[in-house]
From TrEMBL:
<comment type="function">
    <text>Transfers an acetyl group from acetyl-CoA to L-homoserine, forming acetyl-L-homoserine.</text>
</comment>
<dbReference type="Pfam" id="PF04204">
    <property type="entry name" value="HTS"/>
</dbReference>
<keyword id="KW-0963">Cytoplasm</keyword>
<dbReference type="GO" id="GO:0008899">
    <property type="term" value="F:homoserine O-succinyltransferase activity"/>
</dbReference>
<dbReference type="InterPro" id="IPR033752">
    <property type="entry name" value="MetA_family"/>
</dbReference>
<protein>
    <submittedName>
        <fullName>MetA protein</fullName>
        <ecNumber>2.3.1.46</ecNumber>
    </submittedName>
</protein>
<dbReference type="InterPro" id="IPR029062">
    <property type="entry name" value="Class_I_gatase-like"/>
</dbReference>
<dbReference type="GO" id="GO:0005737">
    <property type="term" value="C:cytoplasm"/>
</dbReference>
<dbReference type="InterPro" id="IPR005697">
    <property type="entry name" value="HST_MetA"/>
</dbReference>
<keyword id="KW-0028">Amino-acid biosynthesis</keyword>
<keyword id="KW-0012">Acyltransferase</keyword>
<dbReference type="GO" id="GO:0008652">
    <property type="term" value="P:amino acid biosynthetic process"/>
</dbReference>
<keyword id="KW-0808">Transferase</keyword>
Length: 310
């Protein structure tokens, strides 16, 4: 089944070229079916690239999904025109009275400053609080995961001595977790961040469960009680070339970054990347949609947030 997107969303053409099943808005209105409604709060500066990455993973499943994009009204984007945002993105005021089966909060390049100094922090806190009662399950990604853990559970972040950039192997702490059903004993995921959350802080909170970790990259996947909230500290959605783009960008800025770990063939940035995470990325998003959205959400969206559905 397809993901339903606006008729002229630029990401649609890219997805269709990859044979990702998308349905344009006009066609979707003729379907007599209750689709899943998923909200994507896109905090990344590269809006279209992030749209493609996330929609690609959401589109590889048997469910029909209506996608809505959310922007921060209290932040002025430097990389995406306001015209584009006004056309394809909602503000929180426009959707705060609605309910959704699922939501995704992406990462953002603001991790080197404190949460409270982020210009849209107050608005983000309002949205994260709203998801508790208006969304069946919310997936937080990278900085979005750190921000969610801090807001909901007061889990701090810590600066790293050097950027965690590359493809890292992870193992499972919980073998029967539906979110990672079908995963191999070792799976790979990209990380790209300058800060981290730590297991000893998370383990102090009885409602949080660390599902997966890496010896090098640390905590990877955390779930809350009943999995209403999912926190993924890596970037499972990244394209093959995303880390290469970030590496070249940082070189041009004079940051002198380390070569992303276990990424380029033979660790030589002149070679192409070796993609080792795509299958598990697809499985992660498919499992989330199936086990923690589709199988737990009420048929009547007005019932989302009621105790029996939490």
């Amino acid at each position: 089944m397809p993901i339903n997107i606006p008729d002229d969303l630029p990401a649609g053409a890219a997805l269709e070229s990859e044979n990702i099943f998308v349905m344009r808005e006009g066609r979707a209105t003729s379907q007599d079916i209750r689709p899943m409604k998923v909200l994507i709060l896109n905090l990344m500066p590269t809006k279209i690239e992030t749209e493609i990455q996330v929609l690609r993973l959401l589109g590889n499943n048997p469910l029909q999904i209506d996608i809505s994009f959310l922007q921060m009204a209290t932040h002025e984007s430097k990389n995406t025109s306001q015209e584009y945002l006004d056309k394809f993105y909602y503000t929180f005021d426009e959707i705060k009275d609605l309910k959704f089966d699922g939501a995704i909060i992406t990462g953002a390049p603001v991790e080197n400053i404190s949460y409270e100094e982020v210009d849209y922090w107050d608005e983000l806190c309002e949205i994260m609080e709203w998801t508790v009662t208006n969304v069946t399950s919310t997936m937080h990604i990278c900085w979005g995961a750190q921000a969610g853990l801090y807001y909901h559970y007061n889990i701090p972040k810590y600066p790293l001595n050097e950027k965690m950039s590359g493809i890292f192997g992870h193992t499972l702490n919980v073998k029967d977790e539906p979110l990672t059903r079908g995963f191999d004993d070792v799976f790979y995921m990209p990380h790209s961040r300058n800060t981290e959350v730590r297991a000893h802080d998370i383990n102090k909170h009885p409602r949080l469960h660390i599902i997966s970790e890496s010896k090098t990259a640390g905590v990877c996947i955390v779930t809350s009680e009943k999995a209403g909230q999912i926190f993924v500290t890596g970037h499972a959605e990244y394209d093959a070339g995303t880390l290469a783009y970030e590496y070249e960008r940082d070189l041009k800025r004079g940051i002198n970054p380390n070569i992303p770990y276990n990424y380029f063939r033979n660790d030589d940035p002149h070679n192409d990347p070796v993609v080792t995470w795509r299958g598990h990325a697809t499985l992660l998003f498919t499992n989330w949609l199936n086990y923690y959205v589709y199988q737990r959400t009420p048929y009547d969206l007005n019932d989302v947030g009621k105790e029996e559905f939490r």
